[in-house]
Write a structure and sequence with these properties.
Elements: H1 14-25, H2 29-39, H3 42-53, E1 57-58, H4 59-66, H5 70-82, E2 86-91, E3 94-99, H6 102-120
Antiparallel strand pairs: 1-3, 2-3
Helix pairs in contact: 4-5
Amino acid sequence: MGSKDSCDIYCFDEEKVNRIQNDMQNKDLSNIALVFKALADENRVKIAYALCQDEELCVCDVANIIGATVATASHHLRTLKSHGIVKYRKEGKLAFYSLDDEHVKQLIEISLAHTKEEKANV
């Protein structure tokens, strides 16, 4: 009748559910979703990964790394900046980008480790 990946009957631990729901109300989980949404684009992940490899890259570097135009790279960088993933500084006519903080690098590294585990378990 039921599938193997679902409960066969409906019952829940009310205390556990209430505790977790109350905890969730005190967290800003919507911003976490926005960070992952921004990183859900392959080019933006490539940019974040590239910035893990080198602390700072100009827009032209990024464009060449991801194989895109400067305009496309700029668009992706603006999206990442608006979600707090990267920051930038101007030096003359050049714009240099870097990861906003060490946590972003950790997210990328943890994601890479996770996907490596997934492939090993297949």
